[in-house]
Sequence to fold (213 residues):
Amino acid sequence: MDEHKRWHRRRLLEEAARGLEGNGFSVQVCETVAEALPFLLHQTEEAQTVGFGGSMTLAALDLPARCEALGKQTLVHGRPGLSPEERRRIMAAQQSCDLFFTSTNALTLKGQLVNIDATGNRVCAMAFGPRRVILVAGVNKVCADLDAALRRVKEVACPPNARRLNFKTPCAATGLCSDCNSPERICRITTIIDKKPRATEMLVCLINEDLGY
Fold:
């Protein structure tokens, strides 16, 4: 990445970090994935059960496999070959795990976290249930304000996610959000976390790289 572009993106991350800290979140800003990984794995030391929300960011970091290598019990509902009941059981277990890793669809410079879910297991676990929650987000998730964040989720994140998951939605075919009424619509639950939830210890790790959708 061009040094001036990297500098600009770092400034955006630092501004978002100030917003997040002002809203009660703990924040760690890392320049690269290589810098972030040791920090994130260190956070798992006291956890026995580690849950993972569906996230291309976490997949890019290979966090589930890295946690398994440390001897952690991992709760990953997206593994191939799981039955619907097995997926549901894992999703339920994620709500009470020691540590829950996920990403966020978007975050604002004022430190608000914006997410859209189809099932709700991910956004539910963000707010309450696990003892600790760690969100990992690349600089591409940073948006100026709430309007921009909501647009980003629907116009940038949802179409490739719908296609990746093989849902038969208009956006999976056209790449464009049409605010559809499809039976397989993935935009079903929208959450905005303005402040750190009262009963949840939450840390946001921001990385100065493009990660996930």
